[in-house]
Design goal:
Elements: H1 9-39, H2 46-61, H3 63-73, H4 76-93, H5 100-123, H6 131-137, H7 139-152, H8 158-173, E1 191-192, H9 193-216, H10 225-249, H11 251-268, H12 273-283, H13 287-297, H14 302-321, H15 332-353, E2 367-368
Length: about 375
């Protein structure tokens, strides 16, 4: 039986909130674990680069495979609970002799499995709307930021690990939520199955570029704690508000407009903290748009769609993780060029998908398989 939840009303909001909170704690536990290893001198130099690359591979690159399995089994809640517990298990594993490698694999896989479970829940929360996935994904940035600061300062990963055990029990035992089904006001014309590949390639290209820009931009002032907190809040709010705005004014205007508006702000960001924080907020508003669009292109395969977007994140961040010289920083001219490419790709993808440029976010394509919608 497909156990993918379909909540409604207050229960729906509380359910999504628990998944969002767990997302923050999962990412906090993983970041703390890795940066505590750096603080303790367990890894350094090339070993640290390999450790971070391995974690990101297991956390993001394998998600499409995990998503395929979750879609087939219909086990969204189970995946989320198991992912949280697996991430928590990485902390005691790290205490074993030479246990960091095992801990990295457990933390990465736990993160991947949780992301897929929570991603399916958020994408099925209100099909065709960008708000739920935006709310689910947004707190992850806060968890990462907290974990980095906590771990680099020598903080323990046990508090988030214990919290994950409690949250996993809540996710596993909570009654199956019921989402109200709100029929779309109207639908776009059929999208041929042959066009789905083009749509996905364009969307994943946008996501990879966004991830690369996020890693390549350097804000020297974020070493100051108040400004780091403000920057993190901007990223979190951008992802959450992006979904709300897209549902209000349309995927195309918000997604493409956010890219265009963020460019001058991000270009000024290294020297002007206010501009950098505002640019990060606007820049991240595209995230829920690309995520929900990918899911719309693959109906009934939300886990696989979510996993593909995370694979694109890995591809975009890998050059910076590998410390390739050409990826170390990005010039203003390079930022403009990448923004133009991303905006054009997103405009084309949403056009092929059938998103209404006038602002109706409820339009969804009918994917034609074998000539039958």
């Amino acid at each position: 039986m497909d156990e993918r939840p379909q909540p409604s009303g207050t229960t729906a909001g509380l359910s999504l909130g628990v998944y969002a909170l767990t997302h923050a704690v999962v990412d906090a536990a993983c970041a703390t674990l890795l940066w505590r290893a750096v603080h303790d001198g367990v890894v350094s130099g090339r070993t640290a680069v390999a450790a971070f690359l391995a974690y990101n591979f297991f956390a993001f690159a394998v998600q499409p495979l995990v998503g395929l399995g979750a879609d087939r089994l219909g086990a969204a809640r189970g995946a989320a609970a198991v992912g949280a517990l697996t991430t928590a298990a990485a902390v005691p594993a790290s205490l074993l002799s030479h246990g960091l490698a095992v801990a990295i694999v457990l933390a990465g896989l736990g993160n991947a499995v949780f992301h897929i479970g929570g991603g399916i829940v958020s994408l099925t929360a209100a099909r065709g709307r960008a708000t739920p996935p935006g709310i689910f994904v947004a707190p992850g940035a806060a968890g990462v930021a907290w974990g980095v600061v906590h771990g680099r300062g020598g903080g323990s990963a046990w508090p988030p690990a214990v919290a994950l055990v409690v949250l996993a029990v809540v996710l596993a035992l909570a009654p199956r939520p019921r989402w109200r089904t709100t029929p779309s006001a109207r639908r776009s014309g059929p999208v041929a199955a042959s066009a789905v590949e083009t749509i996905l390639v364009l969307l994943l290209f946008v996501i990879a570029l966004r991830a690369y820009v996020g890693m390549a931009l350097v804000f020297p002032w974020k070493s100051q704690m108040p400004l780091l907190v403000a920057l993190t809040a901007g990223v979190v709010l951008g992802k959450a508000l992006g979904g709300v705005a897209a549902d209000r004014w349309g995927w195309r205007p918000v997604g493409v407009g956010a890219i265009a508006l963020s460019v001058p702000l991000l270009a000024l960001g290294p020297d002007l903290p206010v501009a950098g924080i505002a640019g990060a907020l606007v820049f991240n508003m595209t995230m829920p748009v690309t995520l929900v669009a990918a899911a719309a292109a693959l109906p009934r395969h939300e886990g696989f769609a979510f996993g593909l977007t995370c694979l694109a994140l890995f591809v975009g961040t890998a050059p910076a993780l590998l410390r390739w010289d050409w990826a170390a920083a990005i010039s203003p001219l390079g930022l403009v060029a990448l923004a133009v490419a991303a905006a054009a790709a997103l405009w084309l993808a949403l056009g092929r998908l059938g998103a209404d440029p006038a602002g109706d976010p409820r339009l969804l394509p009918l994917v034609v398989e074998g000539g039958r919608p």
